[in-house]
Amino acid sequence: MTLSRRDLGFGLGAVAAIAALPAAAQSNLSAEDRATLATAQTYLQNLTSAQGTFVETGAGGLRRQGRFYLQRPGKMRFEYTDPEGLLVVSDGNNVKRYDPRLDVFRQVPLGATPLSTFLARNVRLDQGVQIDRVTRMQSGAFALTVRDGGRPNDGSVILAFAGSPLRLQEWTITDAQGSRTRTQLTTLTPASGLASSLFQLRDPTRRPGRN
User: Fold this and answer.
1) Are 66 and 78 in contact (CB under 8 A)?
2) Exposed/middle/buried for residue 141 (C-beta within 10 Å: 0-12, 13-18, 19+)
């Protein structure tokens, strides 16, 4: 079964969009723009193990929240507390989603998702996308508006970084229909010694005697 970004959960889909960051030197980018993109790439490459909390605001003001965990290469977990129990986990091979309210489990190979680029050992942000805008603030904060170079009509993502200290702060996804979802990282801290069990998710719907 193919999972869309919406199927994977707004939070995970948005982070996956980080994989669609800057193509190489494009004609519309200044040297200052390219320097800003390089700063973002270095930051993301160094973000090897982290944890934090997030709040998502979708269409109609619908809010979701929870915790996330990251361990590159290959592993990530979005653990929703509202709605309770919703899980999205990358174990290094597959991305899995379980919704206990519907008792539905789905998975897709990690390599078939944009998340694979972000969770790679070496994050490469220099190929395959279209940069719409690089916005810088006097505080040192900046935002990148990007879209998939091969599918520019699929929508866009705005990635916002705080400048001092540098930190990924939030992102806003706009899909092909114009629907927007904003994800704010309310906390984001480096983490070491994350339990391997965080990145494991067995199919809870496979019970004895059930096909």
Assistant:
1) yes
2) middle
